[in-house]
Amino acid sequence: MNWSHLEYFLAVADCGSLSSAAKQLQVNHSTVARRLEKLEQELGIRLFDRLSHGYQLTEHGLALQQHAQEVADKITQIQRVFRGRESALGGTLKVAKPDAGILNLATLLTEFHHHYPNIALELTAAADFSNLSRMEADVALRLTDSPPEHLIGRQLGRFPIRVYGSHHYLKLNSGAAPETLSWLIWTGHDSDLDLEARLKAALPQARVVLRTNNYSELYEAVCAGMGVSLLSPLRLPDDHHLQMVAPEQFRFDIGLWLLNHPDLRNNSRVRAFRDFATLRLQAWLR
Description:
The chain has helices spanning 3-15, 18-25, 29-43, 59-85, 106-115, 130-133, 167-172, 195-202, 215-223, 268-285, and strands at residues 48-51, 54-57, 91-98, 119-126, 139-143, 152-159, 162-166, 182-186, 207-212, 228-231, 242-244, 254-260. The relative contact order is 0.14. By secondary structure, the chain is of the alpha/beta class.
């Protein structure tokens, strides 16, 4: 029997619903439902009555809960013993981020290094989740609204993306319809960051005059007055002179997720980074 199925079973038994259990386990609702179904199939019994107000343990479920909790307590005891041996928190932590350049982790990693100087950091930029799936990275920060179900993690908030242009360009084009402006677009291999598709969903006739996979180049072109673009206010320097365009109309925000492979759920370095990054980035996104 797969122990993780029992872990999901206990979470639903404690929480009384799939949604609450999913939140506790930091996974999707459908993942919890699928694990429960597999466990019931393995055991050949029904563990819960699915009621309108939630999940209620059957007689078999109550019996399993007692034994499963004993197993969970033993595992917690073992983890506590070995966790104490890792208190120095050394070794290497591999962190992945989007390859767009839209997410700058320099400040976060610097602060993390000051708190955990014995952890060596390796930072890579990737366009998809394959590095996590192949465990080439320990933890990843991803901009997406639909993270893969086989990974675990949490959404830290919404990463803001707005439309900006230089004062000079917008003055020259004062009163112009948005679709007639010159649009500059970041392009890349990350399908979740397809900013042109997001723009065309809002403005099907938008006239794109520049596509680039270099975020810094994109910002410089906007500053030079070439046109307007989708930029994040969190990535603009404090002394920028760009002007936001119709903020009540154009919002292209996307979820910022902190993810890792389920096998690394209790890894001490991953836990340390996950907790540290959550506090810092949630404050940053407010």
